Amino acid sequence: MDRILVTGGAGFIGSNFVHHVVAHTDAHVTVLDKLTYASTEESLAGLPEDRVTLVVGDIAEPEVVEPLVAGVDAVVHYAAESHNDNSLEDPGPFIRTNVVGTFTLLEAARKHDKRFHHVSTDEVYGDLELDDPKRFTEDTPYNPSSPYSASKAGSDHLVRAWVRSFGVRATISNCSNNYGPWQHIEKFIPRQITEVIDGRRPRLYGDGLNVRDWIHTEDHSSAVLAILERGQIGETYLIGADGEKNNLEVVQAILRHFGRSEDEIEFVRDRAGHDRRYAIESGKLRNQLGWQPQYADFDAGLQATIDWYAANEAWWRPHKDAVEASYAAKGQ
């Protein structure tokens, strides 16, 4: 595939994928991104101009999407509204971007017969009990619990329907929680890291025992590229790195990396509908496509992430006060 369109390619996970593609293939990448608050041109800094082209636009607008899809070999669809708290306050943008935007892209891929990969989330499956040994698999029934996860579930169903009804050459991946460079500091791990850098106590929702299955974004990128290149059309692949940690353990690990006491934590009011546990079984991806994570050691990946935020304060500092003010208004 010589030409790839990456939607949301200036956001956190998308930009890391663009860096990965440039480093590991010879493909030219066109990035389509709306450049909302959670994405930035700076996330693409340093990439060769002859390999990466940025187009600012909305994936829900056919006049923007169609000519771009027509000019590439494949579409990798990362673009999404993804903040759960924001979806509780205003679901509208989540429906427009995640559902209408995916529909618009699928129609263009259908018209021009393009390879299509849809990047989704494990949150479409709802959550698991803390004492339940099960993990999500490709056969787990959908049970979304927020407007965000419901909108992503809807987009997944659209992709499957377009494969079956119209023969679109598409695959889907549902990934566990990502961490790594370029993640907006409203998100859990970078918020805690930057709070500790600023000498404050990190804040935890509720009892802090909610479990997430963490994966470094570099590992997510390598998995998506493997699916794009070798995945079977119509199939869904779950991406995970066996990184189950509860939120309390993650914050304690961050404090340890900074030489701070593990009990320097402020507990705040839990968020509405907070899922208790996510866990991914990624055996299909590993066995069929031969994929393995580079950061199987969560602590090593966390240290690399801390080092990145410490070295790139100029990137996140301008947004820090506004993020904390927003959380403070909600008592969090």
From TrEMBL:
<keyword id="KW-0520">NAD</keyword>
<dbReference type="GO" id="GO:0009225">
    <property type="term" value="P:nucleotide-sugar metabolic process"/>
</dbReference>
<comment type="similarity">
    <text>Belongs to the NAD(P)-dependent epimerase/dehydratase family. dTDP-glucose dehydratase subfamily.</text>
</comment>
<dbReference type="GO" id="GO:0008460">
    <property type="term" value="F:dTDP-glucose 4,6-dehydratase activity"/>
</dbReference>
<dbReference type="Pfam" id="PF16363">
    <property type="entry name" value="GDP_Man_Dehyd"/>
</dbReference>
<dbReference type="InterPro" id="IPR005888">
    <property type="entry name" value="dTDP_Gluc_deHydtase"/>
</dbReference>
<keyword id="KW-0456">Lyase</keyword>
<protein>
    <recommendedName>
        <fullName>dTDP-glucose 4,6-dehydratase</fullName>
        <ecNumber>4.2.1.46</ecNumber>
    </recommendedName>
</protein>
<feature type="domain" description="NAD(P)-binding">
    <location>
        <begin position="5"/>
        <end position="301"/>
    </location>
</feature>
<dbReference type="InterPro" id="IPR016040">
    <property type="entry name" value="NAD(P)-bd_dom"/>
</dbReference>
<dbReference type="InterPro" id="IPR036291">
    <property type="entry name" value="NAD(P)-bd_dom_sf"/>
</dbReference>
